[in-house]
Amino acid sequence: MTLRHFRTLLDLSPAELGTILSRAHALKDGRGKADAPKPLAGKSVAIVLEKASTRTRVSFEVGVFELGGLPVTLIARDTQLGRGEPIEDTARMLSGYTHAIVYRTFGQERVDTLAKHARVPVINGLSDQFHPCQLLADLQAVGEVFDRRGHDFSGLRAAWIGDGNNMAHSWINAAALTGLELVLACPEGYRPSDAIVENAKKLGAKVRVVKDPAEAAEGAHVVTTDVWASMGQEEEARDRKRAFEGYLVDEALMARAEKNAIFLHCLPAHRGEEVSAPVIDGPQSRVWDEAENRLHAQKALLEWIVAQ
After folding, report:
1. For the whole model, what pTM was predicted?
2. pLDDT given at position 237
3. Domains of the chain, earliest start first
4. Residues forming the active site
């Protein structure tokens, strides 16, 4: 068996991504059936949370349970990790108890360090630089609407509006794996990492970064955004609100997209800031399907990664 980690989407090949997405659709369709598989029976998964969480915690806990396993949730501040125990020691210790580790943390280097010293698969539940589990759910939501159950999203165009953050970086990586065309509209000073953009382009991604949200949304099949100030950026909220003036996803911006375009948001959302209430609560919104898909996509990921 080969030890595999899921630190970013690029830990997967396009074919592997397609396998996971196809399985996520099947698990969603078959949820609750008596013959649902239990590939984690007799196994446990540690869910280590250094950042506050709603969707990540609930979706992984329920997902591990539905796959027959035992979820063990650790709030870092209540553990020795929160009291300064080295990540390396935590990795070695948890590897002796559990069969996989989900880690929701700050810098991406913390995920990489845990993975380097763990003897079991490590899943990035969120870092400051990437949020790959959310992208699995997003791609599943896009696939449901546009009938794409594998990894081939060529011919579709997505518009990212707002901060060049961990979600933007994960969309960029998704473009490298799926053939999806991606245009990101970000204000100066809040653009995505040039290195991440250039690496994706080397892998064949069709990615552009522009300043004008209207240019990004023009002809898009998917319009997506995130809060303007993420966790840990609360002190920057006032400056960010000024910088992102004009980046609200409202009905006028959605009108520039394709008629069948959908709106996505990883949540939590601030209505009236990054998105208007008529958009997120309107008929083009697939936000709640997207949120539910965290469960199904992560179950598919857990099946795949623990079986390696």
Report:
1. 0.96
2. 79
3. 9-131+294-306 (3.40.50.1370), 134-290 (3.40.50.1370)
4. 104, 131, 134, 226, 266, 294
